[in-house]
Design goal:
heterodimer; A: mainly beta; seven-stranded mixed beta sheet; four-stranded antiparallel beta sheet; 11 strands; globular; B: about 110 residues; mainly beta; 12 strands
Chain lengths: ~120, ~110
C-alpha cells in the first residue's frame, strides 16, 4: 500500500498565481480530508468528502479556495489567486468506512506527507 | 459542541524521563479518542486509540486511558527516547460512522540526550 500520495511536495509561487495541490487517497477509502497547518493557527480542517461528495466546506477560508473530487482516486485543492497568507503546509488524509472489512474505527485517518506552499 | 484541549508546549525532557501530555475533551455523544504523532517533515500518523470508556490504547510504549468521568485521555510514556521528539495531537471523533476528527492544538516534545 503506497499510502496517501500528495503532489507537489513543495511549491513556491508568486502572489496572484493559481496553485493546484493534488491528492491520491488510499485505494478503497471513502472519505478524504484537506487540512492546512501553520504555526499561528495549527491544524485546520478545510473540507472533507464522503464518497466523492463534499460534506463540510465550512473551513474553506474564502472563495479563493476550491476543492474537487472527480473520482474516488483523486482530489484537488485550488487557490486562485494565491496570497502570501496562504503559505502553509497542506495535508490530505483519507479514511475507510468505519466498521467495514478494514476493521477500522470511526475517525481513523491516514495522512499524506503534505505540500509545503510558499507564496511570495 | 465538540472540542479538545491539550497541554501547551513545548515540553523538553531528558532521555529516559517520564512523559505526560494532558488532554481533556468536550463531546455531545460518545466519542472515540485518538493520539496522533507528527515527526519532523512528515504528516500525522495514528499513535493509539480508544473507543469507549475505560479502554486503554497503547503503542510503542505510549499509553492513554479513556476516562469518561474526567473527560480525559492523557498520554503517558515511562521512559522517553530522543526518537520520540515530535508533535503530539489529541483528537476525537464525535459519533459512530463519522470519519471527521476534532484535533487539539498539538504539543511539541523535545527529548535531549
Amino acid at each position: 500500500d503506497a499510502g496517501v500520495i500528495q503532489s507537489p511536495r513543495h511549491e513556491v509561487t508568486e502572489m496572484g498565481q493559481e496553485v493546484t495541490l493534488r491528492c491520491k487517497p488510499i485505494s478503497g477509502h471513502n472519505s478524504l480530508f484537506w487540512y492546512r497547518q501553520t504555526m499561528m493557527r495549527g491544524l485546520e480542517l478545510l473540507i472533507y468528502f464522503n464518497n466523492n461528495v463534499p460534506i463540510d466546506d465550512s473551513g474553506m477560508p474564502e472563495d479563493r479556495f476550491s476543492a474537487k473530487m472527480p473520482n474516488a482516486s483523486f482530489s484537488t485543492l485550488k487557490i486562485q489567486p494565491s496570497e502570501p497568507r496562504d503559505s502553509a503546509v497542506y495535508f490530505c488524509a483519507s479514511s475507510p468506512t468505519p466498521g467495514s472489512s478494514s476493521g477500522r474505527v470511526s475517525g481513523e485517518q491516514f495522512f499524506g506527507p503534505g505540500t509545503r506552499l510558499t507564496v511570495l | 459542541g465538540n472540542s479538545v484541549t491539550q497541554m501547551e508546549g513545548p515540553v523538553t525532557l531528558s532521555e529516559e524521563a517520564f512523559l505526560t501530555i494532558n488532554c481533556t475533551y468536550t463531546a455531545t455523544g460518545y466519542p472515540s479518542l485518538f493520539w496522533y504523532v507528527q515527526y519532523p517533515g512528515e504528516g500525522l500518523q495514528l499513535l493509539l486509540k480508544a473507543t469507549k470508556a475505560d479502554d486503554k490504547g497503547s503503542n510503542k510504549g505510549f499509553e492513554a486511558t479513556y476516562r469518561k468521568e474526567t473527560t480525559s485521555f492523557h498520554l503517558e510514556k515511562g521512559s522517553v527516547q530522543v526518537s520520540d521528539s515530535a508533535v503530539y495531537f489529541c483528537a476525537l471523533s464525535d459519533r459512530a460512522g463519522a470519519n471527521n476528527l476534532f484535533f487539539g492544538t498539538g504539543t511539541r516534545l523535545t527529548v535531549i540526550p
